[in-house]
Design goal:
The chain has helices at about 5-15, 50-55, 80-85, 95-105, 145-150, 150-160, 175-180, 190-200, 225-230, 230-250, 255-265, 270-280, 290-295, 300-310; strands at about 35-40, 65-70, 90-95, 110-115, 120-125, 140-145, 165-170, 185, 205, 215-225. By secondary structure, the protein is α/β, with parallel strands linked by helices. A 5-stranded mixed beta sheet has the order 2-1-3-10-4, with helices on both faces. Strands 7-6-8-5-9 form a 5-stranded mixed beta sheet. Helix 1 (about 5-15) runs parallel beside helix 3. The longest helix has 20 residues, at about 230-250. The two termini are about 35 Å apart. The relative contact order is 0.21.
Length: about 325
Amino acid sequence: MKLLRLAAALLAVVACACSPAKNEDAAKAPDGRTVIRFATDWKAQAEQGGFYQALATGEYAKRGLDVQIVQGGPGVNVPQLLASGAVEAGMGSNSFIVMNLARENIPVKAVAAMMQKDPQVLIAHPDQGLEKIADLKGRPILLSDASVSAFWVWLRAKYGFTDDQVRKYTFNAAPFLADKRVVQQGYITSEPYTIEKQAGLKPKVFLLADEGYPGYATMILVSDSLIEKNPAAVKAFVEASAAGWKSYLDGDAAPGDALIRKDNPEMTQDVLDQAREKMKTYGIVDSGDAQAGGVGVMTDARWAEFFDLAAAQGVYPKDMDYKRAYTLQFVTK
């Protein structure tokens, strides 16, 4: 379900031929704080918990920001909102999204990556003798159109998977549950729990990031003009968001959860609790470079690895200036 966010995002840049509206400077609230409208990539959930926690606990406010979270969903297209200047900041679900923006010469950059590991997983039935991702070769795999243009590129390159394995994923687990040979995409924080809860089936789960998939997730994206006009506001937003994520995972998550449930009344506390625990268990936010560089850190080496992989598979021209996609100035200590 959440992966609908990818399809719209990956097509957004082509659909929006306009240049980003000039943010001469972010607007000011009546109390003098700088307004930052932040568009998320899906309905309120634990995977956005650090941003909600930062808002609920005053991390943004004490840094002079008036942050308004614009909740995502099927009709919300984050890259298009950024490209049109409708919001000052937005969430980038995966590295392909921001790299696509760079390919289309849209002046928007990733300024931080809240998730060091993309939570993308492949889900298989238990008791099928499947112990590693390589064992999935030849099996039908349910994928969204967006995923075929994203992490499937890596799976083909690393494991020799072939396009004849791909089956259409309609964000419904029924085809997966009906056939033990079928494999399904998902998020480590979502679909495995839903399948177990609804079907009483504890699936086999393969986290792509733990097998070497190099993409970042849950990035903060802002326009080049805002970086130029008001870098202090961008820095404040990045720092407050990082503090919010640390608090959400390691402290009392109740304030953030309350705001999430307010924005998304369909969300239940058990789903929030298990998702937060999965993020902690798998080191989704604070593993790798974040252990030394802090929450939100990005590196040139990691971006180069991602670009080289995608370019080698023909996704991007090998001579593309991929460094237009990001800046490290707000996450370098």
